[in-house]
Design goal:
About 85% of the residues lie in helices and about 0% in strands. It has about 130 residues and is mainly α. The radius of gyration is 32 Å and the shape is rod-shaped.
Length: about 130
């Protein structure tokens, strides 16, 4: 039961993470397109004419290089945040496991103390005919 709940929670977090990553990537792409369009308009205003085919090709190459650089930075940030989330999750799991071990130790000690208080011959004694 607990394992199934953990699996559902994990699947939910993965889906939320996918959505967040997709939104971040789409935002970065949208930003790059807007910046590139503004750069093209500024260039055309400065030159006072439309771009030639060669100039458009060069701008497209520049745009692709800037897009790759931006997306690479975004991917690095995503990977870092995922790594930090994983480290935090592992730390929480370790803390929960340590808490469980401490509880188990306390329960074991309590049972052993109770067994020590029983009168001799009551633990493990079975009738001879059994």
């Amino acid at each position: 039961m607990e394992l199934e709940q953990w699996q559902r929670d994990f699947d939910r977090r993965v889906e939320e993470g996918r959505g967040e990553i997709q939104a971040r990537i789409e935002g970065a792409e949208r930003c790059c397109k807007e910046v590139e369009e503004a750069r093209r308009r500024d260039w055309e205003e400065l030159k006072g004419r439309m771009m030639t085919a060669e100039e458009k090709r060069q701008y497209e190459i520049d745009y692709i290089q800037r897009l790759f650089a931006t997306l690479t930075d975004e991917y690095v940030n995503i990977i870092r945040s995922v790594g930090e989330d994983m480290r935090q999750g592992f730390a929480e799991n370790r803390a929960e496991a340590e808490e469980g071990r401490a509880q188990l130790r306390a329960n074991t000690e309590a049972v052993l103390r109770m067994l020590d208080r029983l009168p001799p011959g009551t633990v493990g004694d079975e009738p001879e005919g059994a």
